[in-house]
Specification:
The protein contains eight helices and two strands. The protein is globular and about 40 Å long. The two termini are 19 Å apart. The chain has 159 residues and is an all-alpha fold. The relative contact order is 0.16. It has a two-stranded antiparallel ribbon. The longest helix has 21 residues. The model has no long low-confidence stretch (mean pLDDT 92). The chain binds fe (ii) ion (FE2) (2 copies).
């Protein structure tokens, strides 16, 4: 069926590890396991976003689109990495909403070699809060995957 993904959890996890294993094993990402975010942690949330991103790529391919799955996975894993900076995470919610995408994009480039498209997606992932919408397909997948994962965070349900 064109509107669903038939991938198993194991297949999704294998794709995430293949595309983003270096990120998962980094000291920076590991720091995210101890930073609270929604009802969970930055690391758990980011893995849920990446899983939703893989499934969205699968669905979009069935619709004839050609998402860059590796780029999507890495962008999803890094989109909230700025929250691991105490200076960002400790701010008032409204300031954090605007500042963490910028900090995430900086870290994604400096520590993980993020491309311009990845940084664009990360900076705009809070759309419509940030007003300017994503400029590429990866960005739209991230926006959607982030909302799906956030609803899972509040239900405490794994994907
Ligand atoms: Fe975010
Ligand atoms: Fe997020």
């Amino acid at each position: 069926m064109a509107d669903s993904s038939d991938l198993t959890k194991e297949e999704v996890r294998a794709r995430i590890r293949a595309a983003g294993g270096d990120i998962l094993e980094s000291e920076r990402f590991r720091r995210g396991w101890s930073v609270r975010h929604h009802n969970t942690t930055v690391a758990q949330h980011s893995l849920r976003v990446a899983a939703a991103g893989v499934r969205l790529c699968d669905m979009l391919r069935k619709r004839g689109l050609e998402p860059d799955e590796r780029e999507v996975i890495r962008t999803c894993l890094l989109h909230d990495i700025g929250m691991t900076e105490e200076a960002v995470h400790g701010k008032m919610p409204w300031r954090k909403a605007y500042e963490h995408p910028l900090e995430s994009a900086r870290i994604a480039e400096e520590e993980f070699g993020a491309t311009e498209d990845m940084k664009n997606a990360i900076r705009r992932h809070m759309w419509p809060v940030c007003v300017v919408p994503p400029g590429h397909l990866t960005g739209w997948i991230l926006v959607t995957a982030d909302k799906i994962a956030t609803s899972q965070d509040y239900r405490k349900k794994d994907v």
